[in-house]
Design goal:
The protein has 67 residues and is mostly beta strands. The chain has one domain (12-64). Helices cover 0% and strands 33% of the residues. The protein has a three-stranded antiparallel beta sheet with strand order 1-2-4, with no helix packed on it. A two-stranded antiparallel sheet has the order 3-5. Strand 1 and strand 2 form a beta hairpin. It is elongated, with a radius of gyration of 12 Å. The N and C termini lie far apart (35 Å).
Length: 67
């Protein structure tokens, strides 16, 4: 399964689909490369998008962290 996202390709390290087996929710984990974050004030480099809310991936914001 593919997930459409508005996140820059150079910011993304990995997009991993999880099937939701064992009572977990199905969806995608988006992992960012070092130096990028979903939170401008913290190093938040992972985000979960539920399978039934794929449109959330089109509204994500990423930030370049300063050293």
């Amino acid at each position: 399964m593919n997930l459409k996202t508005n996140v820059s390709k150079k910011a993304i390290e990995l997009i991993e689909y999880v099937s939701g087996d064992y009572d977990a929710e199905a969806g995608w984990f988006i992992y960012l490369n070092p130096g990028y974050s979903f939170d401008p004030m913290a190093n938040d480099s992972c985000c979960f998008i539920p399978e039934d809310a794929q449109q959330e991936a089109l509204t994500l914001c990423t930030y370049r962290l300063e050293a």
